[in-house]
Write a structure and sequence with these properties.
By secondary structure, this protein is mainly alpha-helical. The chain is built from 10 helices and no strands.
């Protein structure tokens, strides 16, 4: 049953005759906790970025800020569970936020390749940004279109949300496929550097990036299955899954880089000179005996 406009535009407590767009009333405590956690992480990333002058690290600040806006929306919904603006506020920003975290990881991998050498990766650092950031943007556009269609339909009498939902599913499946390809390249990178004696700081950064990639990947699988089940599916109507598999995992994904900050760890390791890289390549080649030495 679609909600009347007066209840979608106002702030009303839960009523037994109406079901919210969530299928439940968001927990106020979860909203406050996650706003605080992402706020602390974002503030720390601002300070760390300014201190290390690794300005690309602001990607983590942008992601944390998007998470805060989303959880503010869910906190608002805890008091006004039928308000459509609060619902749209959280669903749009919480879908977008992890994209900034993945973009930060693309940059980290690119910097690692520059330090270790181009032989550590099958593609160049610039290609990681070009390919996977483009895929992320395309997936977000598709999801935004689908979310808009579904939102408009949900506000209409007997509105059909299926076309919008199917579009959102297509966008998030595309995003999952993109992340899967990135995970393949990331593991290929790990295989190539495993035998090398990496400095301790780089080993720590690689482990932190691995941890963050895993959390984002698990979250993407969850959101894909959630949307495939539809707006009245089991996962989307049971709040605990969202709190654990989205909120908690994304705190871990961004928070790990507060503890092991990439700016500090990358600054402590000088980039390998191009001459040294060339020397390593030459040493790897089989040596030929000078014919003039033959007797």
């Amino acid at each position: 049953m679609s909600l009347p406009q007066w209840i979608q535009n106002g702030c009303y407590a839960e009523r037994p005759e109406y079901l919210s767009s969530y299928g439940y009333v968001p927990w106020l405590s979860a909203g406050i906790v996650f706003c605080a956690l992402f706020g602390v992480s974002g503030a720390a990333h601002i300070a760390q970025t300014i201190y290390t002058r690794q300005w690309w690290s602001f990607l983590f600040v942008l992601g944390a800020s998007a998470e805060i806006i989303g959880w503010v929306g869910r906190t608002w919904s805890a008091e006004c569970p039928y308000n459509n603006n609060a619902f749209l506020m959280q669903i749009s920003t919480l879908i977008i936020a992890p994209t900034f975290f993945t973009a930060g990881i693309y940059v980290i991998l690119g910097r690692l390749i520059q330090i270790i050498g181009p032989t550590s990766s099958p593609i160049t650092p610039k290609m990681y940004l070009l390919i996977f950031c483009t895929c992320d943007v395309l997936s977000l556009i598709i999801q935004a279109i689908g979310g808009g269609l579904a939102s408009v339909a949900s506000g209409e009498v007997n509105g059909d949300t299926k076309p919008g939902t199917d579009t959102m599913v297509a966008g998030i499946v595309f995003q999952l496929a993109s992340i899967t390809v990135f995970v393949y390249f990331f593991f290929e990178f790990l295989k190539r550097v495993r035998s090398q004696g990496l400095p301790r700081d780089l080993k720590i950064l690689v482990l932190a990036a691995c941890f963050s990639v895993v959390t984002i990947y698990v979250r993407s699988i969850y959101r894909t299955v959630e949307l495939l089940q539809g707006w009245d599916g089991y996962l989307i109507t049971h709040q605990i899954y969202f709190v654990v598999l989205d909120g908690a995992l994304m705190v871990a994904a961004v928070g790990v880089f507060n503890i092991w900050n990439p700016g500090w760890l990358l600054n402590s390791t000088p980039k390998r000179p191009e001459s040294e890289e060339m020397e390593l390549r030459v040493n790897d080649q089989p040596k030929l005996q000078d014919p003039s030495l033959d007797v």
